[in-house]
From TrEMBL:
UniProt keyword list: Coiled coil
Coiled coil: 70-122, 151-182
Biological process, per Gene Ontology: defense response to virus; regulatory ncRNA-mediated gene silencing
PANTHER family (UniProt xref): PROTEIN SUPPRESSOR OF GENE SILENCING 3 (PTHR46602)
Protein name as it appears in the record: Uncharacterized protein
Length: 209
């Protein structure tokens, strides 16, 4: 009876004291582990959040800088367009002045032709001897015929000159257009290379716990 009581008391002590304390210790260790893991997770989340905030701010600043650069580039483009228009007007005015001066020369040329022809027609061919009248008439006719022939030659050569001039203008415009297209291709290639050089990297989320 005494041994049974001792055995019962010992079993009761293990069950009622030792086992619960061991369980409590294990629970406390697990709870501490969970708390530590939670703290680490929270710290990692704060670090990630902080990193994301920094990246977001950098992206926002970069976007603002890009907007500023694009606005400045647009302003520069507008300045270049205004400068080109000013240059085009300057050259256009020069060409117009050349054309007006040439028109004045043509009018003067025509006036001289008419004036000399009028002089020939007003020549007195009815006075003097018969031989003198005949000679003056022949002289006037030769002058008028020569002038008419010369005018015809002038008109033919002027047509050829104008045609050659227009062909040169067309060729010049073609060459300019081809150079402008080539210039745009060079800019496209250079700008494409620039974008490729500064192409953003691919974001990959970390899989570490």
């Amino acid at each position: 009876s005494g041994k049974s009581r001792l055995k019962y008391e010992m079993r009761s002590h293990n069950e009622m004291v030792v086992a619960p304390m061991k369980k409590m210790s294990e629970d406390n260790q697990e709870l501490t582990y969970v708390k530590n893991k939670g703290v680490k997770t929270e710290q990692r989340s704060k670090v990630v959040q902080g990193t994301l905030d920094v990246v977001t701010q950098k992206l926002r600043e970069t976007e603002e800088e890009n907007i500023f650069v694009r606005r400045k580039a647009k302003e520069k483009h507008s300045e270049y367009e205004e400068e080109m228009k000013s240059q085009e007007k300057f050259f256009h005015d020069q060409i117009e002045n050349i054309h007006k001066a040439l028109e004045d020369k043509e009018r003067e040329f025509e006036r001289l032709l008419q004036e000399e022809r009028a002089k020939a027609r007003q020549c007195d061919v009815d006075s003097g001897t018969t031989e003198n009248r005949r000679l003056r008439k022949e002289q006037v006719q030769r002058f008028i015929d020569c002038q008419v022939k010369d005018v015809q030659e002038f008109e033919a050569e002027a047509d050829q000159l104008i045609k050659a001039h227009e062909e040169k203008k067309v060729q010049l415009k073609k060459e300019y257009a081809a150079k402008e297209v080539e210039l745009e291709k060079e800019f496209d290639a250079a700008f494409t290379g620039l974008m490729e050089k500064h192409k953003p990297g691919t974001f990959q989320a970390s899989n570490s716990s």
